[in-house]
TrEMBL record:
Pfam families reported for this sequence: YjbR
Species for this entry: Kitasatospora kifunensis (Streptomyces kifunensis)
Alphabetically ordered keywords of this record: DNA-binding
Name assigned to this protein: Putative DNA-binding protein (MmcQ/YjbR family)
SUPFAM superfamilies recorded: YjbR-like (SSF142906)
Coiled coil regions, renumbered to chain: none
One function term, GO molecular function aspect: DNA binding
InterPro entries: YjbR, YjbR-like_sf, YjbR/MT2646/Rv2570-like
Length: 126
């Protein structure tokens, strides 16, 4: 099964404080939390892709395991992966990658914002 644009949008917006903005034009959805980007996608793009923030060591592992995961397109390739949503990367893994990207951003926000977001990782990152 391949993730659809609507499913991708829903997966990105399911987190507290997540919002979809269009700072690069109407064709590019930018998903932010606390004013910081955690996902970017041209939801009308063919093929569908999403760029996600990732821990550098994990980014390299994912790229080695899945040909559909490459260094972030037009982004810092050390910290960003671009995932081709062609069905070769399981949707569950894409969902985990979206959550990890969100968590990376929120973990760097001030504690006040983390509390306001009711962030589940707060107890882990104390």
């Amino acid at each position: 099964m391949t993730m659809t644009p609507d499913q991708l949008r829903a997966a990105c917006l399911e987190f507290n404080g997540a919002e979809e903005l269009f700072p690069f034009g109407p064709e590019t959805s930018v998903f932010k939390v606390g004013g910081k980007i955690f996902a970017i996608s041209a939801l009308d793009g063919e093929p569908l892709r999403v760029s996600l923030k990732c821990e550098p060591e994990i980014a390299v592992q994912l790229r080695a395991a899945y040909p559909a995961i490459t260094g972030g397109w037009h982004l810092n390739k050390r910290h960003w992966n671009t995932v081709l949503l062609d069905g070769s990367v399981p949707d569950a893994l894409v969902g985990e990658m979206i959550e990890d990207s969100y968590d990376l951003i929120v973990s760097r926000l001030p504690r006040r914002q983390q509390l306001a977001l009711d962030w589940s990782g707060l107890s882990v990152h104390r």
